[in-house]
Amino acid sequence: MSQTDPLTADLERLLTAARAARERAYAPYSRFLVGAAVLDDQGRVHAGCNVENAAYPQGVCAEAGALSAMVLAGSTHVRALVVVGAGPAWVTPCGGCRQKLREFAAPDTPVIVANEVEVQARFTLAQLLPQSFGPEHLERA
Ligand SMILES: [Zn+2]
């Protein structure tokens, strides 16, 4: 972790994990393969891939799988998320996954979008999910 960019040292690990996860995606219906990886507060990387279902709404996004793996490993803090799709169009997290990420990530958490060969875009969670609702709202209630 460098002082200037907290992700410099970890970005390659996240990209590698997300790209490998993408290759394991189960997407026989859309053939739209997605991989994701999260960096937790202990510096560990957890990956996920999209898993479709014949009953379409039961499919699970790659980001949700990565978050589940992180929680299973004992962490509830995301320091960064990478999502990997294919081609020139940015594969940003869907609305549901932005909210899922919000449960475990601060507004300034980096969300990085990449494809097979390059990083395409970088956002913060707050840019993707402005004025969001999160766990602290329930703590104040
Ligand atoms: Zn999603």
Outline the structure in words.
The protein has helices spanning 8-23, 62-72, 95-102, 125-128, 135-140, and strands spanning 35-40, 45-49, 78-84, 110-114, 119-124. It starts with 7 loop residues before the first helix and ends with a helix. Strands 2-1-3-4-5 form a five-stranded mixed beta sheet. The chain contains five helices and five strands. It is of the alpha+beta class and 141 residues long. The radius of gyration is 14 Å and the shape is globular. Zinc ion (ZN) is lined by residues 61, 63, 93-94, 96-97. Zinc ion binds at residues 61, 63, 93-94, 96-97.
The separation of the N and C termini measures: 36 Å
User: In oligomeric terms, what are we looking at?
Assistant: single chain
C-alpha-based Rg, rounded: 14 Å
Along the chain, the helix and strand elements come as HEEHEHEEHH
The poorly predicted ranges are: none
Query: What small molecules does the structure contain?
Result: zinc ion
**Percentage of residues assigned to helices:** 25-40%
Task: Assign an overall shape.
Answer: globular
Strand order of the largest sheet: 2-1-3-4-5
By DSSP, the count of extended strands is: 5
Largest sheet: 5 strands, mixed
